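Batch manifest, entry 17 of 40.
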Amino acid sequence: MEREDQHPLFFIYKDMKAKDRLFHLLILVAVCFWGMSFVFTTGIFNLCAMSPVSLVFFRLMIATPLLALACLIFFPQPLRAVPRRDWLNLLALGFFEPFLYFIFETYSLQVTADATIVSVIIATIPILTLLLSWFYFKESLSAVNIVGVVLSVVGVVVMLLPSFTAADANLLGIALAFGAVFTAVGYSFFLKKLSGSYNPIFIVACQNAVGLVLLLPLMLLMHSPQELAAQFQYLSNSTVLLYVVLLAVLCSTLAYTIYVKGMQVIGLARANTFTNLIPVFTGIFAYFFIGEAFPPLKVVGAVVAIAGVWAAQWKSGTSSPTEKY
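Output type: structure tokens
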């Protein structure tokens, strides 16, 4: 009988496991970039009166041409070869995120006036994504994976627990936050349908382009001509411009591309669970760069969230999903 280590595909199996580990690490890098976004965004708002709509618009204005150029040079995608059904899916992808998700999340924060409640509601996204992955896309998940996803949410709640004493609950704000949650799940649905057929750079370029087009009329409606000129004028500040470029390149370009590719390799539910580490990275960067406190309870919550994400990635001898790119 042929030994397993003499099988001609043995080294491929080893490479598949190594590939899983590589993409776990890369998704961690993507989440780290998203965690940094809080520090960059706070820096911008401390330096000028740029509106949230303008900030996202400027991010996409930089990220979209970069991705389109990278796609054109390295991963050309014949546009006529894309079926009409997939164009509709790409439009829906960009509509759900960044456009609709941004509106729900931003205005839930504005109405609720407390980021803690919104953050906890947003942390439930991996649970609903897990249900979507399990029931609709039939991804293989163990009891350990499911417990890990729930544990990661518990960790986020523990991290934010001290802030609940001053939390200002508002039913409209809570409803808007749940709108962001369901929007993110909708984004995951269309992303999963598209991810097996196209290169991640093409997918992210399309979603950012749709978001940019949809945000343009919002920019014009929300700002008078004078205010609009002032929004662009803020970019003349070199520090503000640097932060916007970092947000565009690291968060809107690299992080999304890495996440989409990682999702192709390790699956939707496992990849999405990593997003509950965003508050952990945000807390670490905020502690070192803008002096925010990182008390013991927040440390405990961070450890619980990390343990949950680790458990959600546990696999028992199953191979990775196959992907085209």
